[in-house]
Amino acid sequence: MSEEDKVEQPIIVKRIKKGGGHHGGAWKVAYADFVTAMMAFFLLLWLLNVSTQEELNAISNYFDPSHPKVSSSESGAGGVMGGLTMSPDGAMTSDKQPITQPPTTGSSGSTMNAAKVTAQSDASNSATEAAKELLREQEEKRMEDIKSAIEDAIASNPDLQEMKDNLIIDMTPEGLRIQIIDQDGKPMFAAGSARMFAKTQKLLQKVGDIIKTQPNELSIRGHTDSSPYAAGASYTNWELSADRANSSRRVLLDAGFKAERINNVVGKADTDHLMPDDPTNPRNRRVSIILLKEELTNPDFGKNAGKNAPASKADEKPEQKKSPPIKVPKIGTFQKSSGNIEFP
Questions:
Q1: Could you give the CA distance from residue 221 to residue 89 in angstroms, rounded to a whole number?
Q2: Dist CA 157 CA 50 (whole Å)
Q3: Under DSSP, is residue 203 helix (H, G, I), strand (E, B) or coil?
Q4: Measuring CA to CA, which residue among 209, 221, 279, 284 is closest to residue 251?
Q5: What Rg, from alpha-carbon coordinates, does the chain have?
Q6: Counting runs of H as helices and runs of E as strands, what totals does the chain give?
Q7: What is the pLDDT of residues 10-64, one digit of tens each?
């Protein structure tokens, strides 16, 4: 073996390091805490800068447990900033009752004026109601006269005397009701038809001649009994009652009754019987002509009724004499006014 073979060869060892080259993330957490603390610090400095001394004292007193105002408060009004704002114009709320100015003599005068106006209004309302009641009595008397006039006209007319049993006149809450009804064997219309007999037309014309002079509006309503039409019929008691009411309207118009005074024309069929215990009674077939009360149709009824009512002696104002001017004495440099003066 030669000398060269005896020289030892160097041994090379490769070592691989695992892991990155950074130093970890703990510094980020510390930096975030630092930034947060600095933000809070600068926010505190800003609040101290914009707060007034009064607000700073209130905050200081809040954290002082020995302060009597804070320790005794139980509501938000006595807590932090108790009633204060961040603006310089803020002020703590006061727990003392504010001083109020006592009412002056003018307020009592206003009260007296208000009472006087109320009394005048009540008196006016009473006068209006009294006038309305008088109008109601006059209208009722007028309708009673119409009833008597119709009855006398029927009794004095030989052609209509036999139809007095077909006529019923009475007073209702709506007004004077004139009913032309069928009697057994004495119908006013042809059976199942709106064709009016000549005697019925004469009776309606006589009624129209009497009521056309009145200012009241008219409601015309047709009624039938409960006898039904044949099954499947297109013409029913509803059409029949409406057609009979409309036929009566035309006769009244021919008698001179003004069309604008017709308030309504209604077909009631068999829904409002004159003899409810006997639905097929001939008397249920009728035409009702109602002379309506003005209070129901005229919204201005009695509106100006109380204005022309004579005033009572108690309401009459005596002539006022002019009194001489009152000399008001002077007190010091101030002039004393008449009447009582109240000071706070």
A1: 77
A2: 107
A3: helix
A4: 209
A5: 51
A6: 8, 7
A7: 788 777 766 555 566 788 999 999 999 999 999 989 988 888 888 888 888 888 8
Q: Which of 15-24, 86-95, 105-114 has the lowest mean pLDDT?
A: 86-95
The CA–CA distances, whole Å, from 199 to 167, 174, 177, 248 equal 12, 28, 20, 13
- Residues 176 and 291: their CA atoms lie apart, in Å, by 5
Say if pTM beats, i.e. exceeds, 0.70: no
The stretches of the chain forming alpha helices (DSSP H) are 3-6, 26-50, 53-62, 68-72, 105-156, 198-211, 237-254, 294-297
Beta bridge partners of 175: 172, 292
Which is nearest to 223 in space by CA: 275, 260, 297, 176? Answer: 275
Q: What is the pLDDT of residue 314?
A: 42
3-state helix, strand, coil in the chain (%, to 5): 45, 10, 45
Question: What's the rounded Cα separation, in Å, for the pair 236 and 343?
Answer: 86
pLDDT in tens, 242-286: 999 999 999 999 999 999 999 999 999 999 999 999 999 999 999
